[in-house]
Design brief:
The complex is a heterodimer of chains A (161) and B (404). Chain A is 20% helix and 41% strand. Chain A has 161 residues and is of the alpha+beta class. Chain B has a two-stranded antiparallel ribbon. Chain B contains 19 helices and two strands. Classes of the chains: A alpha+beta (161), B mainly alpha (404). The interface between A and B is medium-sized, with 19 and 24 residues.
Chain lengths: 161, 404
């Protein structure tokens, strides 16, 4: 992401953020604290004012955008709905989980819950379509697919108490 | 005492009313404050036997405080480092602006048969754009978010520096009187000696400024700031040196003290009150019948200096590598003249010749009135200006904004 900063003497500062489609978001921060937010569709067009915020409001909206209140990307609760009742879910293996230190075949989770492991994430490494001999360790993230209820059972079992 | 208080009450009522009118109509307040002063002053209300605000000593002193605070704020916002860091581009745009517009104003004065000092005063009035009106209009129209705002604001910063040097020189020329070359030389030497020392003091005095302002209490903070800037400006004026430039330098000194934002925040309403009194006071001293005498220079100046500002701004925009279309807007954006032209007029009014005392102030009032309105309208209807200049065709391979 490229941010262009420029001084506006007597007014404040201007930041421009490239949005990727050729347009730019322009944020003018006044010395008074007021923020004005514009969008410029292309380099040649005129900026269109979207909204303005007081200093206080801007900070509050900013923390929302930053994800301080709700983090959509959270290792423990990422889930993607495939349609119908089927989910893909990411589940972290707790330190005291009973499947830690066992292979997938040994714990036989598919039989127990109805959800299948489609990948194991370990740090930067990903084991896709793991076989029954794939080892699961504490700290791994298992990517599972299955009906909602199965995923819930799976999560309860894997996380440990 | 009671009469004076009542006069001040009258003054503030007029300012409040015209301020409300300006706000309602979306106009700049500066020319309307001046008009308020003209109408409520001795030359209009006084002549018709209505109650009026006399152009007394107290109003003059408060107006003087307005000048000091206007320039103090300019200094606060001004930063040599900023000028240096974006250096080349601001420098080029600023020099073009100065080299085009100041000589044109001076030339108009000389053609009218005025003395060199009188012509130089006219040059300054015509040269300097209004930071207040231009900046406000940029924000109102949303141009602030577009690339043209950078050369416009950059050129205004350059003008701030240019006007400081200009006022230092011209104050000495005007107040030095007609004592010949030796007297002028002496007053220039005093000016540059005093301002030079002050400049060095504020460059190295940052820790001192910071300590003076290091106080929690709001009231003490405001009073301390005024206790520095007002006496220094007063001392400057007592020596025949520009009080405005002294205030500008003190502002520069404060700007690096770490208290800049708090100063702006706490002092802005104080400045606005005294600046409004200053604009009103300018109106008080303006005899509308003198506008007739100033009509010829006024007409010439409007006709010549509007296109010259557009041209210099256009070239300045090009120096910032902007397209022809945006560069033209830079030119249009520089047209409004305002507070600093009036500061120069106030200086001229302290002069010795009839042209300085009467014609130039009347000229400046008329000129600011026309240029502030014309400039704002041109900015609002910049699409028409673009169509006129580019003849509806394409400039730089991009079409101008023709929506109709």
């Amino acid at each position: 992401m490229t941010v262009y900063e420029s001084d506006l003497p007597g007014v404040g500062k201007k930041h421009e953020v490239e949005l990727g489609d050729g347009s730019r978001l322009v944020i003018v921060t006044h010395n008074s604290g007021k923020r004005e937010v514009f969008r410029r569709a292309s380099a040649d067009s005129d900026s269109e004012k979207l909204f303005e915020l007081t200093d206080k409001l801007a900070r509050q909206v900013g923390t929302l955008l930053e994800g301080a209140y709700f983090q959509p990307v959270q290792t423990e609760s990422i889930e993607t709905l495939l349609g119908g009742d089927t989910l893909i879910e990411w589940v972290e293996v707790g330190a005291d989980s009973e499947i830690a230190g066992k292979t997938l075949g040994e714990s036989d989770l598919r039989q127990a819950t109805g959800a299948s492991v489609i990948a194991i994430e370990r740090g930067d490494e990903v084991v896709t379509s793991p076989g029954g001999d794939a080892m699961v360790e504490a700290g791994d993230t298992l990517v599972v697919i299955g009906p909602k209820a199965a995923c819930r059972d799976f999560t309860a079992l894997v996380k440990g108490t | 005492m009671a009469a004076a208080l009542l006069e001040f009450g009258y003054l503030f009522v007029v300012l409040a009313v015209v301020g409300a009118v300006a706000l309602r109509l979306g106009l700049s307040v500066i020319p309307l404050y001046v008009v308020g002063g003209v109408v409520a002053g001795p030359y209009v209300a006084g002549r018709f036997g209505l109650p009026y605000v006399p152009n007394g000593e107290i109003v003059t002193i408060l107006a003087e405080l307005g000048i000091v605070l206007l320039l103090f704020f300019l200094g606060l916002e001004f930063s040599l480092d900023r000028l240096r860091s974006s250096g080349a581009k601001i420098g080029r745009a600023g020099v073009i602006d100065l080299a085009v517009n100041l000589p044109i104003g001076v030339a108009i004065g000389l053609v009218l048969g005025w003395s060199p000092v009188e012509a130089l005063l006219l040059g300054g009035i015509v040269y300097i754009s209004s930071s207040a009106i231009v900046t406000k209009t940029l924000i109102d129209l949303g141009w602030i978010a577009d690339p043209e705002s950078e050369p416009i604001l950059g050129t205004l910063v350059f003008e701030d520096l240019a006007i400081a040097v200009y006022l230092a020189v011209v104050t000495s020329l005007v107040l030095g009187g007609d004592g010949g070359v030796a007297a002028i030389g002496r007053s220039l030497a005093i000016a540059f000696g005093f301002l030079g020392l002050l400049f060095v003091a504020v460059q190295y005095g940052t820790p001192l400024f910071a300590r003076v302002l290091d106080v929690e209490n709001q009231e003490a903070f405001v009073l301390r700031a005024l206790a520095v800037v007002v006496p220094i400006s007063g001392a400057a004026l007592a020596l025949g040196v520009s009080e405005a430039v002294a205030a500008f330098f003190v502002g520069m000194g404060f700007s690096t003290s770490g208290h800049r934002e708090r100063l702006e925040h706490q002092l802005v309403s104080v400045r606005d009150v005294f600046a409004a009194v200053f604009f009103f006071w300018i109106g008080l001293g303006t005899d509308p019948t003198l506008l007739a005498a100033a009509a010829v220079p006024l007409a010439i100046a409007v006709v010549v200096s509007t296109p010259s500002k557009i041209l210099s701004g256009y070239l300045g925009g090009r120096a910032y590598d902007l397209s022809a279309h945006r560069s033209l807007r830079v030119g249009v954006g520089m047209v409004p003249r305002g507070e600093f032209s009036l500061v120069i007029a106030a200086l001229a009014a302290a002069g010795t010749t009839p042209v300085m005392r009467e014609i130039i102030p009347a000229f400046a009032v008329g000129y600011v009135f026309v240029m502030s309105a014309l400039g704002t309208v041109l900015m609002q209807r910049s699409d028409l200006v673009e169509r006129l200049v580019f003849r509806g065709g394409a400039a730089d391979g991009e079409t101008s904004t023709e929506s109709a």
